[in-house]
């Protein structure tokens, strides 16, 4: 995570990004163990977009397709569905109109925070207690 992004977010937000990164790494490892069985490309895309967005990065459609582990056609269907649901948005790259930037919408970001906070609530409280003990 960039130092600017770390300063901008709270400790709890930074912890969620770290937990999301660990979750994505574990999901990718499981996908290699059982290809096609233990992967949810839309959820993996949301995790990638969340992590990247919180770190101040930019993801292009092509990168998101590659990160999904799906064919381009299947990945684009997931991107379309996530956009239709209001979780993500696509924007033209102002520097290169041929490229399309993908990012979480405000409601997508809020949904990711809510889901990750719920999933990692115990771990975040434990981490907060360790910070207070110092």
Class by SSE composition:
mainly alpha
Largest sheet: 3 strands, antiparallel
Q: Cα-atom Rg, whole angstroms? A: 16 Å
**Which residue ranges are poorly predicted, with pLDDT under 50 across at least 5 consecutive positions?**
1-7
- The residue-averaged pLDDT reads 85
Strand content: 5-15%
What does this structure look like?
This protein has about 130 residues and is mainly alpha-helical. It has helices at about 5-10, 10-35, 40-55, 60-70, 70-85, 105-120, 120-134; strands at about 60, 90, 100-105. The longest helix is centred in the N-terminal third of the chain and has 23 residues, at about 10-35. The radius of gyration is 16 Å and the shape is globular.
Main attributes of the structure:
three-stranded antiparallel beta sheet, 134 residues, disordered N terminus, 9% strand, 3 strands, mainly alpha, globular, 68% helix
Question: How would you sum up this structure in a few lines?
Answer:
With 134 residues, the protein is mainly alpha-helical. It has seven helices and three strands; from the N terminus they run H-H-H-E-H-H-E-E-H-H.
Q: In terms of topology, how is this protein built?
A:
Elements (H helix, E strand, L loop, with lengths): L2 H6 L2 H23 L7 H14 L4 E2 H8 L3 H13 L3 E5 L7 E5 L1 H14 L1 H13 L1
Antiparallel strand pairs: 1-3, 2-3
Helix pairs in contact: 2-3, 3-4
């Amino acid at each position: 995570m960039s130092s600017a992004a770390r300063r901008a977010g709270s400790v709890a937000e930074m912890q969620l990004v770290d937990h999301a990164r660990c979750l994505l790494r574990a999901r990718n490892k499981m996908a290699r163990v059982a290809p096609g069985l233990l992967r949810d490309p839309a959820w993996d895309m949301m995790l990638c977009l969340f992590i990247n967005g919180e770190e101040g990065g930019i993801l292009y459609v092509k990168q998101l397709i590659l990160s999904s582990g799906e064919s381009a056609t299947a990945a684009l269907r997931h991107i379309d569905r996530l956009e239709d649901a209001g979780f993500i948005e696509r924007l033209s790259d102002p520097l290169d109109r041929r490229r399309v930037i993908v990012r979480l919408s405000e409601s997508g970001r809020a949904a990711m925070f809510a889901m990750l906070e719920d999933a990692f609530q115990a771990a975040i409280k434990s981490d907060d207690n360790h910070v207070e003990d110092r």
